[in-house]
Specification:
The protein is mostly helical. Helix content is about 40%, strand content about 5%. The radius of gyration is 17 Å and the shape is elongated. The mean pLDDT is about 80.
């Protein structure tokens, strides 16, 4: 629950930030002549992002999900020394 709550908070910031600060300069896909500025915010972006971009995002999300800390649900014996919510990202906790 902690992980999914934090992902939801990051997704909310990812929606708000481009509206306030602008978008990255340059190209999202040089071969398709698609700039970051051409991508709309919100659900309208779903149809604008190239298929290989979606493959990269899904692959990264899968990597993060599978390489995360073990939990009780994983039925392993080494979950006892893991603090809930501690994913080793000390920038937010320090």
């Amino acid at each position: 629950e902690l992980k999914h709550g934090r992902i939801s908070m990051l997704a909310t910031m990812g929606y708000i930030t481009p509206e306030l600060t602008g978008k990255f300069p340059g190209y999202l896909s040089p071969s398709m002549d698609l700039k970051f500025a051409d991508i709309p915010n919100g659900l309208a972006a779903v149809s604008k992002i190239p298929a290989l971009g979606w493959v990269q995002m899904v692959a990264y999300a899968g990597y993060c999900e599978l390489s995360g800390p073990t939990t009780r649900a994983a039925n392993t014996s080494d979950y006892a020394d893991i603090t809930p919510g501690d994913y080793g990202f000390k920038v937010l906790t320090s």
